[in-house]
Design goal:
11 strands, Helicase, Ruva Protein, domain 3, 7-stranded mixed sheet, two-stranded antiparallel sheet, binds S-adenosylmethionine, alpha/beta, disordered N terminus
């Protein structure tokens, strides 16, 4: 590799002998994958899978197509793009920001560095929300729109509001609502918690920033250095926005309405205590995620 080899990151692709022929290819799918897998082994939990995802993205083909045609040639310029992506990934840059896509609740979402990468544990909140079959919902801090759009796709009659303080993030949510054909039913609003006031609604859902400010620096580098601080930092105790949601909810909820709020694994007790303070007559529960850790605060008024 001469045209793309970079120094300074401690990552070297072995040089590849050009394969002969009129197309001037420099590699095959099989060779490119093998080399990338070795490089990604240092940083990725699933290096082969990530190598395949990145090559599929670079060549704009499915992983199945790669696996069924390992002899497929990879042109020099494609290889250069691929190697660049592999280097960035091996330096800690998150895979979904490289490909611009992520799977959540069985749907593909666009992501950019303006939004948090949707996490599997947030699917617990979506499952709990779907079980209630609400007709009107507001998602606060919508980010990529993964919660609001998943709910809209699975509740074909529901009307949703998606509020987000970052206009750039809200544009990503709008793209995702369009991509999944629910833009007509997901009304996006730039706002601060529940202002402008939507509703009234049956259900408030939110995955607020909930990392205590003092712990943001301790997050894994791939999170701390690349994901938006606005999406992570939940203030001194991590519960600032949870408090704001509980405080503002009565003005927005219909009688008998409910809230589902994602929380950190060690915030169950504190969140439950807060909810009982703001809603002394409500039924309050903390639900675990699939790993058994406290994850979703439910307030049934
Ligand atoms: C943890 S992220 C969740 C994003 C998305 N809902 C998800 O589950 O992947 C929190 C989001 O809340 C937004 N946010 C932070 N403070 C906010 C506020 N005061 N009002 C509205 N949104 C806020 C952030 O910009 C970020 O997009």
């Amino acid at each position: 590799m001469t045209d793309t080899a970079e120094s300074g990151m401690g990552i070297e692709f072995p040089s590849l002998a050009p394969t002969s022929g009129p197309r001037q290819t420099t590699s095959t799918v099989k060779d490119a994958l093998q080399q990338a897998t070795v490089i990604l082994r240092a940083t990725a939990d699933t290096p082969r899978l990530e190598a395949e995802v990145l090559l599929g993205y670079t060549l704009d083909v499915s992983r199945t197509a790669l696996l069924t045609h390992p002899e497929r040639p990879v042109a020099r310029h494609q290889l250069a793009h691929y190697q660049n992506a592999v280097r960035r990934r091996s330096a800690g840059y998150p895979l979904p920001y490289l490909t611009g896509r992520v799977e959540f609740y069985g749907l593909t979402f666009d992501v950019t560095q303006e939004v948090l990468i949707p996490r599997p544990e947030t699917e617990t909140l979506v499952t709990l929300a779907l079980a209630r079959r609400p007709a009107t919902i507001v998602d606060v801090g919508t980010g990529s729109g993964c919660i609001a759009v998943s709910l809209a796709v699975h509740l074909s009659e529901a009307a949703l509001y998606a509020i987000e303080i970052s206009p750039a993030a809200l544009r990503v949510a709008q793209r995702n609502a369009q991509r999944h054909g629910v833009a007509q039913r997901v009304r996006t609003l730039v706002g601060d918690v529940l202002s402008p006031r939507p509703g009234p609604v049956d259900l408030i859902v939110s995955n607020p920033p909930y990392v205590p400010s003092g712990e943001c620096g301790l997050l894994p580098a791939s999170v701390r250095d690349y994901e938006p601080r606005l999406a992570l930092d939940g203030g001194p105790d991590g519960l600032v926005m949870v408090r704001q949601l509980l405080e503002q909810a009565p003005a927005v909820l219909k009688p008998g309405g409910a809230m589902l709020i994602e929380i950190g694994a060690d915030q169950g007790e504190a969140a439950q205590h807060l909810a009982c303070t703001f809603f002394p007559h409500a039924a309050v529960h903390v639900h675990p995620d699939l790993a058994g850790r406290d994850r979703v605060l439910e307030v049934q008024t």
